[in-house]
Write a structure and sequence with these properties.
heterodimer, A: alpha/beta, Rossmann fold, five-stranded parallel β-sheet, two-stranded antiparallel sheet, globular, B: Alpha-Beta Plaits, three-stranded antiparallel β-sheet, 7 helices
Chain lengths: ~180, ~240
């Protein structure tokens, strides 16, 4: 466990049902990441090796929509342990491509059947160990309270940096000037 | 049209216009911009999208600027916190009504609904979304309609009827079941009245009607209607 600097803000990022493009965009902040690193400590993220979501996190960015039971529980845990929660990218904000299956009834079973039970598979089988899919894919704010939104597919690195800098400085980012829906 | 000139105030600015003008056209003459979606210059106003709602002093009711005729002594407000909230609400209900997924839409970045959404700072949809599963018709030689992206502004219906004069397109049912149809609710390829003029694709504010394989920037040309109307006036 690295030595924690008490002056640094504890930040986490979470990856739910998404393509990781938002995290790539996060990394696209390039040299601004160095500035960011002076002010924050990344305590949980797909980019670092942490097994459990830690308590007392100041700011969490979540990428991806909620598509299964495990992710729903994860989201509730994150909300309980985080002060400011940010929806990162269109999947988290609207459901985006992940939610395209919502159009069809019983789409969860249809997906399992197509992926695992398809007769053209070598060994068609119903998986037992994977988390149960939700009947409808949901954006984050339909399950927990979300404080800020960063739309975009993927969101612009500049927009991510703007929202982060404003939040770290204790200001509220102005959506009107920077939002780009979809 | 040169009867009595009407005198009214829009956002505190004195405006003089002819009888029969609408609040929207009157506001345009003094450079006041009211947001619109279903309105298109050259077509009959429809008043369906409710984005152009304005306040008129003396009543609590809000009026659609595109379809409300002016009256002398009217005092109109086009920008206020209340209207801003209402317009945000209108945009969110439009987005919640059908499957609007910008990242997989042909009109991404060239969509009037998206532009308005950005302008009003709508960064998420508050309402629970209704994931529509409406029919996509790509049977026409090159025109495609994806009804899941339709906002029912009826621009295409009006352009088809009033400008092209064939009335291939129309609406069926009402409420949340409303849909754009061709002829007697037939496949586009079977709709024999269609002249394939592309006006529907040119005026569609979103990505619902488009020309297959053509750059959407090239297809979209809503101003063409006003141009045609103006040129036809010259012929008379």
């Amino acid at each position: 466990m690295p030595q924690m600097n008490p002056k640094k803000l504890r930040v986490a990022t979470v990856w739910l049902s998404g393509c990781s493009g938002c995290h790539m965009s996060f990394l696209d902040q390039d040299e601004q990441l160095l500035e960011l690193a002076k002010q924050i400590t990344l305590v949980y993220s797909p980019l670092i090796d942490a097994k459990e979501f830690p308590p007392d996190v100041a700011l969490t960015l979540i990428e991806g929509a909620v598509a299964n039971e495990e992710q729903k529980e994860m989201l509730k845990t994150v909300r309980a342990k985080t002060i400011t929660l940010v929806s990162l990218g269109d999947c988290a904000v609207t459901g985006n491509v992940v939610a395209l299956r919502n159009r069809w009834p019983q789409s969860d079973q249809a997906i399992i059947d197509r992926a695992y039970n398809d007769p053209t598979n070598l060994h068609p089988q119903t998986p037992q160990q994977v988390p149960k899919l939700l009947s409808q894919v949901q954006p984050l704010h339909e399950i927990v309270k979300v404080d800020h939104y960063i739309p975009g597919c993927p969101p612009n690195a500049k927009l991510i940096n703007y929202v982060l800098t404003e939040l770290i400085a204790g200001r509220i980012p102005l959506r009107e000037e920077h939002a780009k829906y979809g | 049209m040169n009867t009595h000139p009407m005198k009214l105030k829009i956002d505190g600015v004195d405006v003089e216009c002819s009888e029969g003008s609408t609040i929207l056209t009157a506001a345009k003459t003094v450079g006041i911009n009211i947001p619109t979606l279903c309105y298109l210059e050259g077509l009959t106003p429809y008043g369906g999208c409710r984005l152009c709602l304005v306040e008129v002093s003396g009543t609590n009711k809000l009026f659609p600027a595109c379809a409300t005729p002016v009256a002398s002594g009217m005092e109109v407000t086009t920008q206020s916190p209340k209207l801003h909230e209402y317009r945000k609400m209108v945009l969110q209900t439009l987005l919640a009504e059908r499957t609007h997924i910008c990242s997989v839409c042909i009109a991404n970045d060239h969509c009037e609904l998206q532009t308005q959404t950005n302008q009003y700072g709508v960064d998420h949809v508050f309402y629970e979304r209704n994931w529509s599963c409406n029919e996509i018709d790509s049977t026409h030689d090159f025109l495609v309609i994806d009804r899941n992206r339709c906002i029912l502004c009826t621009r295409c219906v009006r352009a088809c009827d009033e400008i092209e004069g064939v009335h291939t397109l129309d609406l069926k049912f009402h409420g949340k079941n409303t849909d754009v149809i061709m002829d007697q609710d037939e496949l586009w390829s079977k709709a024999c009245s269609c002249t394939s003029c592309r006006k529907c694709a040119k005026v569609c504010p979103v990505g619902a009607i488009y020309v297959e394989g053509e750059n959407i920037e090239y297809t979209k040309d809503p101003q063409v209607i006003a141009f045609i109307v103006e040129r036809r006036k010259c012929l008379k």
